Amino acid sequence: MAPDAYKIVFSGSMGAGKTTAIGAVSDIPPVTTDVMNTDTTQHVKATTTVGIDYGEVDLDHGEKLLLYGTPGQERFDYMWEILARRALGIIILVDNSRPDPVADLNRFLDVFEPFSDEGAIVIGIGRTEAHPQPKVEDYYREVEKRKLVLPIFAADVRRKKDVLLLLNALLSTLEARER
Amino acid sequence: MGEKVRYLGCDGLGPKEITLIKSMLRLFNGQTQGRWLFSEQQPFDALLAPNGRTLGADAETEHESLFIRTALPRVQEDNPDTEERRQNNLFVLRPIRALTLLEKLNQIGLMLDHAETQQALRAQGWDDLRGWHDLLLEWRDTRDSFMVETTLCKFVVFPLSRRFLCEKPEAPARELVSARIRRFERIDPERAAYILRAKRTESLAWLGWHVGHFGDGELLPDFAGDRPFKLQRWPDFGSLEHDAIYVPMAGVLTQRVVTLSELRSLGNFPPDILHRFLNAALLTGYLEFVGTRPLGGLFGRRSENATARLGLFGRIRSKLGI
Question: Cis omega before residue B43 (within 30°)?
Fold first, then answer.
């Protein structure tokens, strides 16, 4: 990564909306490696990301903010850590329609918690309108068991303002550490 | 909860006008704030009497208007100031029109309800009920569930389980928390437990948040004394109405223990918005006062290149428009 490039990582289970979230703010059409989904035990979507998603935001004067989406399937979880290194922050997207979304979050936090000192972690809970259980409060309680104070918001990443809210919280966390 | 019965009396009016008023009250049945009945004898909740200059000898037309006296302090004085009376709009012009009387009785009903609520609060040792703030703060640490009736709808609040039930959950948050409280009453614990089991309740944090957010910006008394505090949990900005600047405020307050004066010096936060944020955070229960500040003081863990990093974050914000 070039010294004047910074990255933010979007992670989350399969179908949680990582590609959509990156597309909402990227200056370029997201580069995706979607292929036909053959793992329908995890999610029924037609295509899925087997590698990484990539988008970027041009900050002028040669600086770039790089946006990466991690592969959702667990068999690629070795890549999560690699992507998280030296990231400004990690946005974990949780799909509330999945059978055990709290367990999903815990799986991602197991990997990303060590990065919470280095970067910021923000959590977006999707599909809460159609699937109101578990509640956002339940996620807070789960995260608090780890002695973490993280932003956890209901978020529909199809709406750009929701993606910007997650990024705003991520930046606010980083800024507060530097003030 | 039965409907409150109010009594209207008349003084110095002729029989035709009294008959007219009685018939109007029968017509109003169920449409007024409380149920108004005509009464021949004291005590009255309101008394209709002639007012203003004398026009003629006929008892039913000698005054151009009628004045409604109530038990409210502002109009109970023996020699009330005329201007003050006008501001209260408690005049009914002759000839009496049903809609005008209906409107005035509703107005008086609301004022009496409010006055009675205040009186009940004072009897319990509360000097003043400013609204939801006081109710939520006073009951924060109790086990008693209570019903609150506002000018919009009824609520049941369960402080112990941190839940509430609202009669009109679809109403906008601002309207729900801005409606004036008319009365409240404790609820039998068994009944409260039944409601909690049978009905879909919401987090009391939602109610507390919006009470603070849509409040008048006057900082709650809890913040007096410049005690240090910290935000123990991020509010769910995905579902709570908020100002965009609340997000960086929450960023600061979840990272460190600060006093109000320190917080004011940390960022260029507009005071009224800061106050509304702090009130909202306090009323959710997420903001907690701490006895002592941990070692390390006000400032967090600034990196060596803090200025450069803050500049970078500013450029990202500028580019994303946040």
Answer: yes
Please tell me the distance in Å from B258's CA to the nearest CA on chain A: 12
Instruction: Output the CA torsion sign for A14, A84, A100, B236.
Output: negative
Cβ–Cβ < 8 Å for B165, B193 = no
Q: Which of residues 88-127 of A touch B (CB under 8 A)?
A: 124-125
B125, HSE (Cβ side, Cα atoms, 13 Å): 1
- Report the C-alpha gap between B25 and B105 in whole angstroms: 10
Judged by a CB distance cut-off of 8 A, whether residue A162 touches chain B is yes
Give yes or no for a contact between B85 and B49, defined as CB atoms under 8 angstroms apart. no
Using an 8 Å Cβ cutoff, are A170 and A120 in contact?
Answer: yes
- Contact state of B255 with A173 under an 8 Å Cβ cutoff: yes
Q: Å from A47 to nearest chain B CA?
A: 28
How far apart CA A113 and CA B239 sit, in angstroms, is 25
Nearest by CB to A175, from B205, B244, B310: name it: B310
When CB atoms are compared, the residue of B205, B250, B303 closest to A172 is B250
Report the length, in residues, of chain B: 322
Tell me what ipTM this predicted complex has: 0.89
C-alpha distance from residue B126 to each of B123, B149, B159 (Å): 7, 18, 18
As given in the structure block, the two tokens for residue B218 are 């006057």
For residue A112, pLDDT beyond 90: yes
pTM here is 0.70
